[in-house]
Amino acid sequence: MTQDFDAFHAALAAHDDVAINPSGNRSLDRMVDAGRRNVLKGGLAMAALGFFGGGISACRAVADDGLLGFKGVPQQFDAKFDKVIVADGYSATPFFSWGDAVLADAPAFKGDASETWEDQLKQAGDNHDGMHFFPFPDAPNDHGLLVINHEYINPTLHSAGIVFVEGKRKAEDVKKEQAAHGVSVIEVKKDGDGHWQRVAGSRYNRRISTLTPMQLTGPLAGHAAMKTASDPSGLEVIGTLNNCSMGVTPWGTYLACEENWHNYFINRDPADYAQRVSHKRYGIAKEGVSKNYGWETADARFDATPYRDQPHDGHVQEPNRFGWVVEIDPFDPTSKPKKRTAVGRFCRECSTLSLGKDGRMAYYYGDDTKGEYIYKFVPSGRFDAANPKAARDLLDEGTLYVARFDDDGKGQWLALVHGQNGLTAENGFASQAEVLLNARAAGDILGATPMDRPEWVAAHPETREVYVTLTNNDDRGSKKPVNAANPRPHNLHGQILRWNEAGGDPTATTFQWEIFLLAGEPQGAKDDKGQAVPANLIGTINGDAFSSPDGLAFDPAGRLWIETDFDDIEPAMARIGCNQLLCADPKTREVRRFLVGPRGCELTGITFTPDGRSMWVNIQHPGISYPASDGKSRPRSTTVLITKNDGGVIGS
Ligand code: FEO
Ligand code: CA
Ligand code: CA
Ligand code: CA
Questions:
Q1: Residue 87: how many CA atoms within 13 Å on its side-chain side?
Q2: Which among 1, 101, 564, 604 has the fewest CB atoms less than 10 Å away?
Q3: Ligand 1 atom closest to Cα of 260?
Q4: What is the pTM of this model?
């Protein structure tokens, strides 16, 4: 066994020798990429780029070598690839893995998944996703709090995997899964040698999970639609679910977003289901068991079937209490998280801030489901940097908008306001609370544009130009045909869109948009039989090929970082390789591959110190062993620290 393992690693090491020297051993695809890059430097570039979108900035194709200073890394095609390869001159160090101690009295990670649910509640959760570094003001580049989402769990959480006995889960197993969801807050600090360390037992270290009480705030707080048998007040929810990406506020709080919460519920009453928009329009299960992970068989709160003999019909309204934004103050470890409801309910990927000069702001949200919408929330109030405490509840009042992308490159933000645009009682919206609760159905009435699975949004730190990843869409459905913003019928590779709000104002109600790039294979790509790859799979990337953009963020210097999430076992993806982190120059549109992750993983979560010299990214659900923070090799979701060996700015 050990011998096989060593041989396996020796083989991979040999593969590494090839991989880290791209100039000497480039794959065919990479050479095609390089050829394409050269072509794009010529006149063809203008013609090619003029073809897409509204053409706001086709002139940006003019070469500008400023932003991307590193040498790209090649794709990795090995079926057993289990490394992280980062650009030459950089280091990638496992930093914080599932099971690592968070609280002072946490047991060390045991390695055989024999931890109890109480142990798990003190350790890092599973499936690291969105993440943010909050600096301490006195040493912002050396000391801070790292806040990390734990989106869902893998079967490796238990020694025996996910087990049903006579159709039921064990209560202890379900509790352990709930404890492994949520958020970790950890203090991190550079030691005397300048190496980042996790501060063991810090008073800031905290776990928030599906077992943590949170306060409901905003228009739905205490509303009839939020009352359940276990919370007749409708004011307190236990826990958060499926925290995918995130956001931050200018007043220094973290926004954990609730994405695929519908997978945790079931409503077995067909008549009730058929008329309950807040279940039906979000795809809650109606038979069998809930997708994640049959919790209702051990925890009645997740059985959303109406039980008329119970107060508030049991837990039929429990799903209404998920799909929101959870605001967490990482600097106050005793604070109760607040679940904000003014922001609307859907399968929210992210909550990305764009702050205007006058303190007014927008938060952008993707609803990551096939054919769903992009939203923004504009708080009524302004942020006043001189009085950050006054901003504490700014997310409780404002206007929610949904986006319409017109084929001519213009766009409209449509206000989801009760009484306007058909959002009336006759159409099923008795109040603003119900508009927010059923935001998708409200967006349907307003004619919002169905998108190809909107994931992360990023706003340029200076220009406020906004970018969104539309990860892919292999089933558009008959009611959701192609449109200019979502132009490919069977869209396996996805695209990145960008727009400028009118006047550069985050609160504007009109915008100009264009396609930044279509992901996919390079022009002229051939399959393994030498046949031309179908046009639908060919991208317009100026640089390195990738599929399914998901994570997206600007660094402090305005480089656009792109993280991918596709099924790298899928035959259609064989020519794309493993999932990866790339960097784009928003002006030239050049894209260069910075890092490749182990087979089976998704790259997600990305954050920087203010000086741009330290970066953390997450390796989520690596399929094969990837060394975790304790140096031992096993598949564990892991936060990885990236630094430049000469101490320079990442990407420069
Ligand atoms: Fe959790 Fe849409 O990614
Ligand atoms: Ca995602
Ligand atoms: Ca994804
Ligand atoms: Ca994922």
A1: 18
A2: 1
A3: 1
A4: 0.90
